[in-house]
Amino acid sequence: MITRERAAERGRARAGTRRAPGARGPAKPDGGTHAASRRTWRQSRARVVSQREYGAGFRWLELELPAGFMAPVAGQFVQLMLEFPSPVLLPRPMSVASARRVRGKLRVGFLYAAVGTGTRALAELPPGAGVSVTGPLGRGYPLHEPGTPVLIAGGRGVAPLLMAAESLARSRRRCEFVFGARTAGLLVGLTEARSRLARARGRLHLATDDGSRGFHGDVVALLAKLAPKLERPLVIHACGPHGMLAAVARWAMANGARAHLAMESVMACGTGVCRGCPLPRSGEARAQVLAEGAAAAALKGNPEWAMCCTDGPVFEARDLDWERVE
Amino acid sequence: MSHVTTRRTPIAPERVDLSVRIGSLVLRNPILTASGTFGYGDEYAHVVDLSTLGGVVTKTVTVKPRAGNAPQRVAETASGMLNSIGLENVGLERFRDEKLPRLRALEATVIASIGGETPEELETLLRALGREAGVGAFEVNFSCPNVAAGGARYWADPARLERTLAQLKPLTDKALIAKLSPDVTDIRETARACERGGADALTAVNTFVGMAIDLDGMRSRLGKATGGLSGPAIKPLALARCWEAAGAVRIPVLGSGGIASGRDALEFVAAGATAVQVGTATFVESGAATRVLMEMRAWLAANGIARVVDLVGAFRAEPAQEERAIAPARNGERS
To answer: What percent helix, strand, coil does chain B show, rounded to 5?
Structure first.
């Protein structure tokens, strides 16, 4: 459910209320959120600081961004583009896995797999090379929401949750981190997850489909097993394949937990302009947009489809029609 | 190369007169954003100074709001992108009440794109918006490839175009620009029909119908079988259509299709376009239109061309070249 308060907060932000430069404080580490993501993005030239192998075909990329680029919050993404001559035309949305200041400069980390033409070329870039970065884009996880934070990661979906774990640790909030993959070797970023959790005594729970590590089964089965031992209310923040997110969303709705799911989509612009990344709204969300009339429609765009880039990529379980999510 | 560009003394960039006229509308320069690639303008206002562009062509608006097509709506292909958005838009009422006031505040020259499934819907739109302050001109989208009704096929009929424009013309004193589909046998026919109907200008061209198949799933990479192709992939195709259209009419033509640099824009101008639209390039680089403008100005200055209008249509095919380009090849002969 989107409360009226939240709707109003988002409405204000979307109306593009201009503030003097510097009037906005630094992004809150704990989720700084919906309002912060509205039209504060910039397109900047970033510098590759480092790249390294991360196991199982994954790579960790660290970029340095120029002043004026706002610090992203967990769940937000950037549009990353190779410089000329690029083998691909459009930028690619990349979820942010870490953001920190090093000697006053913003450094942003990404976890990616070199699987396509663009990402293979990205993997070739040496330190010092330039890339174009547009962001931060979209709405991140509302990590400030009261309750027991339960972070659920599926495979490479771990990227934004590493950042969420870091943010929660910084604000000394203990969380549960449920991490699942098909097999042990695909639990990428395990060491990082551990070190981030250690700072606020967070707990790591592992699951593999083949039983090669941790719980034998999927993350939802593990969640169901853990939930009775956790203090309610639970606030779930998840990222992973859409099938997994649908299962997490259904579990949350059936068990009275709130769940925020970071979705993926093919995108062109990433900024809400091209209308290229629709996700089906739930009947409830659709009815709400229609019932609230023009004002709500103005801030949500369209009662039928939500845009992954600007309405998301983080959506609350009740806002999407999981039967129709592809 | 044409006589226009040879042996001229370079001039200062600020001395280049970039203004052009589209019907009753004077544009400060020939660079516009293409409909559907710049939202309603305000989305990019924090990164692009809209008042420096020739104009902003807004997302096509229809009488009723439209939800748009089911995913997938975009797919990248070699040097281009396919889209199947399906004219998602906020509808006439919200466009007029919310979007237009914001654009007015941003001091942009607004060209409102309107679309309809019937001539009557276009009339409704013009009755509502035709005298609206803050709209400099209207671009009528006769060429969306992604809607079941009122799309490029429906509007490919020259007689229908002519009749409809004649109906629309009295409803506004602002310039009416007809945006044409490239997917016709002869764009000169649709171009002439629009001119006869009373269009003040043409936009050539909208996206080309295209396809991409995901072999693993044996299905379209879009939610529908086909979409509209845009980006650098279509530039030579669009340029040819623009040149053909411009050669067939006396009204100004706005060139569009794969423009990503000042030189791209100038090729369209040389082919006969009075102004150009930058579209897909904006998805790659939010400031693309601004850069295209700067590059255009710099090239004109370096070549000592004091007025951009002097370059419009500067390219003239040699008669023999033109013959070869248009005449079908005879049997057994290489074209």
So the answer is: 35, 20, 45
